[in-house]
Specification:
This protein is α/β, with parallel strands linked by helices. Helix content is 32%, strand content 26%. Bound molecules: S-adenosyl-L-homocysteine (SAH).
Length: 340
């Protein structure tokens, strides 16, 4: 998975701009400016709930085309004093996407630095956003066999084509209470990144918002998928040409964050989160200045971002939102339990 996505010459993210109607998939910030604006307001609120620290760091993991950060920075301007105190770090490994981000953010006055990893971003109160980042991190898959769990691996078959197989050894550390042939996915890289975010927030203060498609309880099953031009493809036939992702295990991320002494809010659904923090009021304000065609676009974007139903059409249920905060900070909005 790492090779297919990150290989310096042939990796998917190194050679492609995967976004938009002509690309392979569309993400929430590419659907509507409302998404990034609401995240920006949430981050501004989190900053003031942390006591409005000087020299806050705004970090985005996997910024794509830079659209989300542009909308976030515009919305943040409503918080007096915040923009002047902010330094932005964009954690991005793809040179092609870094170039797109540079162009998108060319007019910004806030200082922006590009980093290969979060570890390179200087310490300090951390305000972090990761949208559809964790799903791009590699997972390991294990299959339950009679003697125990064995890791699923990729090798060559007799025709010398890529094929799935099983490693010979069994994994002693996985619980055995699963049926034969069951599969489990684990993302040690994702858990390590989460632990690093949480460790910084617990020691330096701040808040992080993780948004991705995934599940709220650790579950059995396979979610590795390859997507090319808005269609599912076999992950082994065109390595480096298709986007590879896996659903995010939010329960595992929450455990990793709590183990570092941070507080976890959620996960909730993207639909509930955006509605609670007021996206409908933002849509109404935009509608007030729009013509009929624009009004229809705003309504359709709102529905795609928050609606319940078929995940191929709406993001409201499948996408989850989880916050990681400093334990002494009052809870930021968006995670209240509401009886439905
Ligand atoms: N957040 C954006 C893009 C999501 S796609 C959006 O919502 O539109 C995933 C992004 O993460 C891409 O920018 C990709 O290049 C980047 N990425 C993937 N793996 C990464 C890694 N290990 N380190 C840093 N960036 C990574």
């Amino acid at each position: 998975m790492t090779l297919c996505l990150q290989h310096p010459r042939y990796g998917y993210y190194m050679t492609h701009d995967p976004f938009g109607a002509l690309g392979d998939f569309i993400t929430a910030p590419e659907i509507s400016q409302m998404f990034g604006e609401m995240i920006g307001l949430w981050l501004a609120d989190a900053w003031s709930l942390c006591g409005a620290p000087q020299q806050a760091r705004l970090v985005e993991l996997g910024p794509g085309r830079g659209t989300l950060m542009t909308d976030v920075l515009r919305a943040l301007r409503v918080a007096p004093g915040l923009s002047e105190r902010l330094a932005v770090d964009l954690v991005e490994t793809s040179p092609a996407l870094r170039q797109v981000q540079r162009e998108t953010l060319a007019g910004e006055t806030i200082p922006i630095e590009w980093r290969d990893t979060l570890a390179e971003a200087p310490r300090g109160p951390l305000f972090l956003i990761a949208n559809e980042f964790f799903d791009a991190l590699p997972v390991r898959q294990f299959v339950r066999t009679a003697p125990g769990w064995r890791e699923r691996v990729v090798g060559l078959n007799r025709e010398r084509r890529l094929a799935f197989g099983l490693a010979p050894g069994v994994e002693p550390d996985l619980p055995l209470n699963a049926p034969l042939h069951a599969m489990i996915e684990i993302s040690p890289v994702g858990q390590n990144v989460m632990a690093e975010i949480a460790q910084r927030i617990a020691s330096d203060g701040g808040a992080a918002l993780i948004i991705d498609y995934g599940y709220t309880k650790t579950t059995l099953g396979e979610s590795l998928q390859a997507v090319s031009r808005h269609a599912y493809v076999d992950p082994l036939t065109t390595p480096g040409e298709a986007d590879l992702t896996a659903h995010v295990d939010f329960a595992a991320l929450a455990r990793a964050a709590r183990a570092e002494g941070a507080k976890v809010l959620g996960p909730t659904t993207q639909g509930r989160f955006l509605t609670q923090i007021g996206i409908e009021r933002r849509a109404a304000a935009l509608r007030g200045r729009a013509n009929d065609r624009q009004k229809a676009d705003i309504d359709s974007a709102l529905h795609r971002l928050t609606g319940s139903g078929d995940p191929r059409e709406v993001m409201g249920d499948l996408f989850k939102v989880m916050a990681v905060t400093h334990p002494d900070m009052p809870d930021p909005p968006g995670f209240a339990e509401i009886e439905s």
